[in-house]
Amino acid sequence: MSSTTKVPPHTTPADQPLVGELEIVPARNHGRWIAAVASVLALVGLIGSLAKNDNLRWDVVGDYLFADLIFDGLATTLWLTAAAMLLGLSLGTLIAVMRLSSSPVLYGLATAFVWVFRGTPLLVQIIFWGYAAALYKYVEIGIPFTDITFFQAETNTLLTPAIAALLALGLNEAAYASEIVRAGIQSVDPGQSEAAHSLGMRPALTMRRIVLPQAMRVIIPPMGNETINMLKMTALVSVISAHDLMSNIQDVYAQNYQVIPMLVVASIWYLALVTLLGVPQAWLERRYGRGTARAGHVSPFRRLVGGSVQPSGKNSKELNR
């Protein structure tokens, strides 16, 4: 007599679903879509209101937007920004190294510099350099406590409004840049410097070849913001008539009394320049952020058109399967 064994019926996917056959349903972000639609409608309404506002005098904006006087001011603004950032970054790096030095004299001098130029308003510094002749009529270089002089010139001749603006912007930026560079240097593992010294590298070479390239990951983002801020801060030099963009704008509306239209012209150009500066900043952040969590950074434009931050490294392929 043979016994038969009943085989259980085949289990269907409905009874025991397989992991690979799960249906993934995206989250329904209704609130996000409602907020986006409301924001777009509000923006369209604001733009339409400004476009129809006769008090803005769009004809005046169009007449002066590409005027020669505006381009002259733009040239001064651009070279002031570039020169002040170059001076600030170079001097700021030196001051940052001095603040990290074991010498109390170097540390004290660097700390005093940061204390003075970061602790006083930029506008005050611009006015001070612009009217330095009220304090010193002549600039002399010689041996102290003697009558021996190697160089002498009138302060007003030497410190033109453009040079005074450059000194004020550059020295003020050096105080802030030194703190950014110092933070970047301190973010590098001290073991990197110790390993370089064990290989016979001098401290200066170690700083230039080992520490600073790694510190750029921390330095680039805030330094890019400082460059953009410097571009806008050049508008303050209009108080000493440095013939920048804002100075020329003020000269125009002092004659035609069209204050708001001329300020719109200035705002359009500042927005355009800041937008252009944002492009190399984003590229530098992606370049120096390779190998870190910022390597998957996506630009704001790509996010608007539907891009997203992708994981970096070998794990990205596993997550995308």
Compute the CA-based radius of gyration.
Answer: 30 Å
Helix fraction by DSSP (H/I, runs of at least 4): 55-70%
Number of strands: 2
- Which parts are unreliable, with pLDDT below 50 for 5 consecutive residues or more? 308-321
Q: Helix/strand/pairing class, anyone?
A: mainly alpha
Shape: flat
Order of helices and strands: HHHHHEEHHHHHHHH
Strand content: under 5%
Distance, first to last CA: 54 Å
Number of helices, where a helix is a run of at least 4 consecutive DSSP H or I residues? 13
User: Major beta sheet, specifics?
Assistant: 2 strands, antiparallel
Overall pLDDT confidence:
82
Strand order of the largest sheet: 1-2
List keywords for this structure.
321 residues, two-stranded antiparallel sheet, flat, mainly alpha, single chain
Notes on the protein architecture:
The protein is flat and about 70 Å long. With 321 residues, the protein is mostly helical. The two termini are 54 Å apart. α4 crosses α7 (161-186). It has a two-stranded antiparallel sheet with strand order 1-2. A hairpin with a 6-residue loop joins β1 (138-142) and β2 (149-154). It contains 13 helices and two strands; from the N terminus they run αααααββαααααααα. Mean pLDDT is 82; it is low at 308-321.
Summarize the structure.
With 321 residues, the chain is mainly alpha-helical.
List the helices and strands and how they pair.
Elements (H helix, E strand, L loop, with lengths): L29 H23 L5 H8 L2 H32 L4 H16 L2 H9 L7 E5 L6 E6 H4 L2 H26 L3 H9 L4 H31 L11 H12 L2 H30 L11 H5 L10 H5 L2
Antiparallel strand pairs: 1-2
